[in-house]
Write a structure and sequence with these properties.
Blueprint (H helix, E strand, L loop, with lengths): L3 E5 L3 H12 L3 E5 L3 H10 L4 E2 L3 H5 L4 E4 L4 H6 L1
Parallel strand pairs: 1-2, 1-4, 2-3
Length: 77
């Protein structure tokens, strides 16, 4: 797949959605507030890149997904 995707938030819902995208072969960059969570996710899914910041994850992405808790977190991200 040629689309570059960014996924911000790898909690219970986000991790499963991002995993489906990774399995489908998308070029996927992930970010999570807890870096170790993003690193573990990338270790479990081939071809996934971890970004240090939401902006870094979104840079160059064709589509950006956010899966965070509430409106305040959406504003922050």
């Amino acid at each position: 797949m040629s689309e570059r995707l960014a996924f911000l938030g790898l909690g219970i819902m986000g991790s499963r959605q991002a995993a489906n995208l990774a399995r489908a072969g998308f070029d996927l960059t992930v970010w999570n507030r807890t870096t170790v969570t993003a690193q573990q996710f990338a270790a479990e899914h081939d071809g996934v890149t971890v970004a240090d910041t939401p902006a870094q994850a979104a840079a160059g992405a064709d589509i950006v997904f956010t899966m965070v808790v509430d409106g305040d977190q959406v504003q922050q991200v």
